Amino acid sequence: MEIKLNSPLDMHLHLRDGEMLGLTVPSSSKTFSGALVMPNLTPPLTSASSVLEYSGRIKEHSSGDVFTPYMTLFFKNSYTREFLHDIKDKILAVKLYTAGATTNSEDGISLPIGDDTLEVIGMLEELGIPLSVHGETTGFVLERETEFAAAYDELASSFPKLKIVMEHITTTTLAELLGRRENLFATITLHHLLITLDDVIGGALSPHNFCKPVAKSPRDREALRHLALSAHPKVMFGSDSAPHPRDKKESCCGAAGIFHAPFALQLLATIFEGAGKLENLQGFVSDNARAIYDIDPPPKTVVLEKKPFTIPKTCGGVVPFLGGSTLEWSIKEVS
Amino acid sequence: MEIKLNSPLDMHLHLRDGEMLGLTVPSSSKTFSGALVMPNLTPPLTSASSVLEYSGRIKEHSSGDVFTPYMTLFFKNSYTREFLHDIKDKILAVKLYTAGATTNSEDGISLPIGDDTLEVIGMLEELGIPLSVHGETTGFVLERETEFAAAYDELASSFPKLKIVMEHITTTTLAELLGRRENLFATITLHHLLITLDDVIGGALSPHNFCKPVAKSPRDREALRHLALSAHPKVMFGSDSAPHPRDKKESCCGAAGIFHAPFALQLLATIFEGAGKLENLQGFVSDNARAIYDIDPPPKTVVLEKKPFTIPKTCGGVVPFLGGSTLEWSIKEVS
């Protein structure tokens, strides 16, 4: 059995910087046609020059591949209309973080959302720049996303022409909210289709399954699977692939993040075929994103075949998601 | 400020075996007058000889201290009335584990509780041997204890003369159940009075705060604090102190268990005084257990004083709970 994917897209990706680019960029550029690149570096990407330079460094590492890094800008309350107008053509979205919600998000906005933040969001609506949001409060870990739902609802209602992407949703609450506001969209990761909190803390502690937002309950996972496997038109694949060296994961204070970009398509094919929904994979992994972001990614054809593939136990010092496991699908050809 | 404790008791303790006894036994025997010792060794304690030999090894390591190890027997469906009758004087309780619920519990009973299990429980009631229970299903990690509540309720109602101790309770569900059945009692650990799931997975991943049952929500913690700080007469202190070497915690598959026995009284004094309930510490840490188990532990007086004490960062290869933190209370004198 085979499946042909046209221009697969990863609409939520962490490529890190420096030496790590040698691992992360080829991991995605070999099989994806494009990816939305997150801006939470240290320091975060908040200027045209930092976005352009980072984009340049990414392109150096993907030089042999057909691959478009769609860039994002780290949301700041201090942005002016002129600045956003000038940078508009260099980015696909502005990414808003709540302060302290995840890796390198210290410079994010504080809650409740203030007037200065709303003013900048108004400029994005006016300029037609989508807003990508890491929507979590800093409350109890299992309630953070649910507590943010009201903010999503309010933003969607206050800025009806703004496209708002709820990133890496993990709960039934946000899965339901998606249907209630026309201008709300969502990305769903790969790991949240597979794991629950049981896979993190249910048996032995599993640092390599630890990510933010943390995986939730089986019921939550089911809601995400329903959206993804049906290729709900408001939902896109966003891997949130985020590598950390093994010693930063297996430590007294393990870093949050799961790495699976090089095996994402093989994993997705295994999940979708397992659920008898292989025909919806093209929508989830490409078509929906093209429609939502109005993009035309470079042509790239990935042929997957049903043939066992074993995920390596380690990739350049990083332990990948499900390392050592054998999947049912392999990449046959990329052209 | 000082407080004098008479014969403090730890009614849920893991002493391990072999070399580890050199760390665990003195950690408890120096300051506690007695402790209920858990039987989940490899293999578990299921015979009179294994209980007596283990008790002997413990006493070798506590030889300089006034300390009674109250022994437990690992529940098996195959026990006969004669066996239980003969072993009765050597143990304080029989400990029931559900299979797979925690470390070395593979030989525990399966759910729902079967007739063979109920038959043995009936013998315990008849012989007046308390039943200590690790009450968790093998369901979703956050629901395991709550799902077991019905079994507690049924056991308490079916065996009204049996004393049933719900070990290391962590949820409002069991805190509430405690008041509904006369023959239900509970132990509460130290760490569940302090941490929530936020301290395990809310920031970086914290393997040294990882235990079973996992810490729950702030609301659950509040229910436990209410019971403990008021020295509710059906509640006893049970540390569940359970050391693992650092490399077994900071690994790809971290072991569950928190170690704090040597600092338990200093920590408890800090918690109780912080809540303005220092007068209830004697009840929680000794008097309630004496009444519930009808025991008369050896006399031992521990004087604590309000003077800073810093928990070491490591104890014989084990990272203790809150290692490196400074507490407000120290041990002044033990006699």
Specify the CATH homologous superfamily of chain A. Answer: Metal-dependent hydrolases
Rg of chain A, rounded, reads 19 Å
Strand percentage of chain A lies at: 15-25%
Q: How many beta strands in the DSSP annotation of chain A? A: 11
Low-confidence segments of chain A: none
CATH level-two architecture of chain A: Alpha-Beta Barrel
> What is the straight-line distance between the termini of chain A?
19 Å
Approximate shape of chain A: globular
H and E order of chain A = EEHEHEHEHEHEHEHHHEHHHEE
According to CATH, the fold-level topology of chain A is TIM Barrel
Biggest interface: A-B, 28 and 28 residues
Can you offer a commentary on this structure?
The structure is a homodimer of 335-residue chains. Chain A contains twelve helices and eleven strands. With 335 residues, chain A is of the alpha/beta class. Chain A has one domain: Metal-dependent hydrolases (TIM Barrel, Alpha-Beta Barrel). An eight-stranded parallel β-sheet of chain A has the order 2-3-4-5-6-7-8-9. A three-stranded antiparallel β-sheet of chain A has the order 1-10-11, with helices on one face. The longest helix of chain A has 15 residues. The relative contact order of chain A is 0.16. The model of chain A has no long low-confidence stretch (mean pLDDT 96). Chains A and B meet through helix 8 of A and helix 8 of B.
